[in-house]
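Model it.
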Amino acid sequence: MIVAWAGCYTFFSITEAWGDNPEGFFLEDFLHVDAESSFGLSFVPGVVWPLIIVWVATLVVLALGVQRGIGNANRIFVPLLVVLFGALVIQALLLDGAALGLDAFFTPNWEALTDTGVWIAAYAQIFFSLSVAFGIMLTYSSYLKRKTNLTGSGLVVGFSNSSFEVLAGIGVFSALGFMAQAQGVAVDEVVASGIGLAFIAFPTIVSQMPGGPFSGCCSSARSCSPGSHR
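Modeled.
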């Protein structure tokens, strides 16, 4: 579902369809969030059809196999991700109020360590991002040579994954600091936390950077490439 959202934002980035209100656009215009409904058979066409396309694309990549499918795709898209995402983070750091967001990001809240919900969220995040217990790692490992250094490979995957997440956090919180300063509120009052946060913060960055539509379009396209999520 999230990959389908990213696919839609590839096209939204061309015209910066979110305008001056990325949060309102994401929740109301795009997702059509209804706080009162709990279950129903109605659906949002703008979300369902991209999801079907993602499913079909994923099946095609799986049919091509690891080497010809996911492997070839990531040789192109992973380096592209690093370059374009680095540009987004740099632009975010240049926004007015970025320091405010970074202060909120890097200032530890030791009391939160006593909250079991924080630990559960942390474990859920790392298990998801590293694909632990998904069966994906078992599939990838079947392509390794018998004497592959598993310890070294595991450390590279773990540290590279966590490092990129920190980089993403710097970009997101820099944008939140910019939004907080513009609205005259605290960083934690800008937008609600959750999976939609990136779809609010990053459009804000794209709107502020030169050539934003191009960079936003490319970054969103990379994010929705099948099999590339870790």
